[in-house]
Design goal:
Elements lengths: L3 H14 L1 H7 L4 E7 L6 H20 L9 E7 L4 H14 L4 E4 L3 H11 L5 E3 L6 H4 L5 E3 L4 H16 L3 E7 L2 H16 L3 E8 L7 H9 L4 E5 L3 H13 L5 E4 L6 H6 L8 E4 L10 H11 L6 H20 L5 H10 L10 E2 L5 E2 L3 E6 L2 E4 L2
Parallel strand pairs: 1-2, 1-3, 3-4, 4-5, 6-7, 6-8, 8-9
Antiparallel strand pairs: 10-13, 11-12, 13-14
């Protein structure tokens, strides 16, 4: 006769052999490709995004995962901040690694190229890119979290006109689609409120010395210099070199690029400088405090907008997968994400029919080397 232990073991074995038991024992993870700049001038931005996503995935997995117990697995790819490498990474993720979902698009140039590879094939969440064409051209499975450059400039230009109040301004912009669009938007918007635009200079994504361009801008004697920088390393160098040229006027940081490491690397050059961001650590969202705790427990970097976008991307995808019950049910996921607001660390997100998010934007300022909300 079988003893009690033998009966229990036999029952457990039979449970595993049943359809339900096999499903529970063999639940595959939900595989999310995280495609970002892990090397090159944008490596710090990519690292922040990865850390934010990892912290959120850890929180979700600790609560049981998604779609009835499936864990989230993040697979990291390096796009090097290059459109060509972004395209290659997306192809590899879809065609070779058979991922379920994609997060990417930290830079607009990469997002604009990569979306053509993912178009109508896989749910893709773009993060910090701002160029309007990322979403406005249509892609039924594409979503973008960050505000477009037009949305950002509409909010931020009002703050520049009414809070910062420079009499004149000159621009230094990265020479890509986003940088040129920034110049176009702010030239029009700031000019409309009476701010004189005295000139501009462009720089390239690989540049490391900006003194020639900044000296030219200083010679125009603007009341403020607006810096449109897309990555931390270049941005910090520009802010330091502005002061090294002897310029003593106002400095305005472009929207969406302020983070603690930028403040640290810039020394005193960012003190009292304004920016605009959807992220503030004290925004009061229910998932913000536990995510901040998880992030600080696991990583040395200070939380930032870019890290929060990584977290938000994972939250949005988890919401869609839970609603659909299957990470490959793309039509159901897309329909759910477009049907109602999604709670996230940055607040409730509402997606348009074209997948563009609308979420709060805040005016922030550097005070005593801390990024604080301007109330």
């Amino acid at each position: 006769m079988l003893g009690r232990r033998d009966l229990i073991a036999a029952a457990a074995a039979l449970a595993l052999l049943s359809p339900l038991g096999v499903a529970q024992a063999q639940q595959p993870p939900v595989r999310i490709a995280l495609i970002g700049p892990m090397s090159g001038t944008g490596a710090f931005e990519g690292q922040l995004g990865l850390e934010g996503a990892q912290a959120m995935a850890a929180m979700i997995n600790a609560k049981g995962g998604v779609a009835g117990g499936r864990k989230i697995e993040l697979i990291n790819y390096d796009d090097k901040g290059s459109p060509e490498d972004g395209v290659s990474a997306a192809k590899r993720a879809i065609e070779q690694d058979n991922v379920d979902l994609i997060v990417g698009g930290w830079f607009s140039a990469v997002a604009l190229s990569m979306k053509e590879v993912t178009r109508d094939k896989i749910i893709t969440v773009m993060t910090s890119s701002q160029h309007p064409k990322v979403t406005e051209e249509g892609h039924k499975y594409l979503f973008r979290l960050n505000a477009t450059s037009a949305m950002m400039s509409e909010f931020y230009s009002k703050a520049i006109c009414n809070v910062i109040k420079p009499k004149s301004v000159a621009f230094i912009n990265v020479n890509d689609d986003w940088g040129r669009l920034e110049l176009e938007n702010y030239t029009k918007l700031l000019g409309a409120c009476g701010i004189e635009v005295k000139g501009h200079e462009f720089y390239n994504r690989t540049d490391t010395d900006f003194t020639t361009a900044l000296t030219k801008l200083k010679s125009l004697n603007p009341d403020a210099i607006y810096v449109a920088a897309i990555n931390t390393s270049q941005g910090a160098t520009i802010y330091r070199q502005i002061r090294q040229t002897g310029y003593r006027g106002k400095v305005i940081a472009s929207a969406g690029n302020m983070n603690p490491k930028l403040v640290e690397l810039s020394g005193n050059s960012l003190e009292n400088v304004y920016s605009a961001s959807p992220f503030t650590a004290d925004n009061g969202q229910p998932s913000m405090a536990p995510w901040l705790a998880e992030y600080k427990k696991s990583f040395k970097n200070e939380p930032s907008f870019l890290a929060a976008l990584g977290a938000q991307a994972v939250e949005v995808l988890a919401a869609g997968v839970n609603a659909a019950g299957d990470p490959r049910a793309y039509d159901k996921i897309a329909a759910h994400l477009k049907a109602q607001e999604i709670p996230t660390v940055l607040g409730n997100v509402r997606f348009s029919d074209k997948g563009q998010a609308t979420q709060p934007i805040h005016l922030v300022q550097v005070k005593n080397k801390e990024i604080v909300s301007v109330r």
